[in-house]
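TASK: fixed-backbone design
INPUT:
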């Protein structure tokens, strides 16, 4: 974990445990263990994955007052198989090793697809500028609230 590498290292004791403050100093969100992706993706097949994701959302809201009541907590409406498959898709090695703003790239991809449809209908659309501006606004807004 990149944030862990920023902590001082003691030759005999190693590094201390990460804290919420360590994450905030790096403009990152601290997630409780049961809200982390690795925890969710490694749940046993018999686990109620929808309930586990709902609990993860609640735990995140408990850590950040500005998120209270904002995150969805109704994942139990989806089948276990669907949720487990989504977790498997996002757990692929290629996604884990991707660098940069992966969600921004996905956003731009879909905006591009949308733009192609709009252009065929005679509209004018600039997905790259919109995607870049959206990411800049989103990053600024989301970190100011934390």
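OUTPUT:
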């Amino acid at each position: 974990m990149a944030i862990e590498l920023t902590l001082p290292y003691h030759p005999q004791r190693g590094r201390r445990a990460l804290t919420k403050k360590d994450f905030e100093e790096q403009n990152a969100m601290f997630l409780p263990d049961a809200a982390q992706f690795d925890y969710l993706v490694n749940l046993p097949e018999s686990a109620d994955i929808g309930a586990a994701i709902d609990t993860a959302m609640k735990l995140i809201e408990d850590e950040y007052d500005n998120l209270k009541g904002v995150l969805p907590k109704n994942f139990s409406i989806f089948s276990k198989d669907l949720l487990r498959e989504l977790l498997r898709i996002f757990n692929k090695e290629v996604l884990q090793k991707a660098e940069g703003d992966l969600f921004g790239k996905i956003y731009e991809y879909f905006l591009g697809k949308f733009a192609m449809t709009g252009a065929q209908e005679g509209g004018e659309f600039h997905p790259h500028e919109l995607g870049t501006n959206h990411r800049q606004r989103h990053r600024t807004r989301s970190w100011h609230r934390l």
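COMMENT: Residues 91 and 97 are 10 Å apart (CA to CA).
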